[in-house]
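Hi there, hope your week has been kind to you so far. Thanks so much in advance, here it is.
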Amino acid sequence: MTVTESDIVELDRIAVHEAVRMVGLAEESDWERDTPCAGWSLRRLVAHMTAQHLGFAAAARGAGHEAAHWREPEDMRDPAGAHRVAATAVLAAFAEPGAAEREFALPELGGSVPGGRAVSFHFVDYVVHAWDVAAALGARLELPDHVLDAALAVARRVPGDPARRGPGFAFAPALEVPAGSGPLEEALRLLGRVPQEWPVRG
């Protein structure tokens, strides 16, 4: 599947909006739930998502090398509100003319990458994190087939080097993909998730 720079910005927008919807489903009693991100409560996961949105927004505008933009917010009393504001910021930054053609400084990767590639990283991250939130809540993720197909295409390109997978990194080690898996399940398993451990409720 070939994805252009303009395509990836739109795909990312769809994934981020679904992540915002998922986070918005959480009630006060849900924030300390476990998530597929080992050791992270839902509140901590959403703090991470919020920080990543703000960091990528800064990177799109040439300030990604500044560590302050990537720090998790200290005040997460309203996780959904903080996440929604950050999501709006990153979508606005990515929508600026030429954003996907710039170099993005991404400290977690140790340097800069072309904008289109950086947005693709953000895109697959938010398909996965939207699912992480849905899994914690027992909710069903709702993304169109073409978005899931694109996420799988990106997931297949994520390096599988064991030295860059596991605690402290974005993704867990890749898992075996059963025959007949759909695009979402395959993408999740390639990035270390086990969908069957997190059934949809109701």
Summary: Strands lie at 103-106, 111-114.
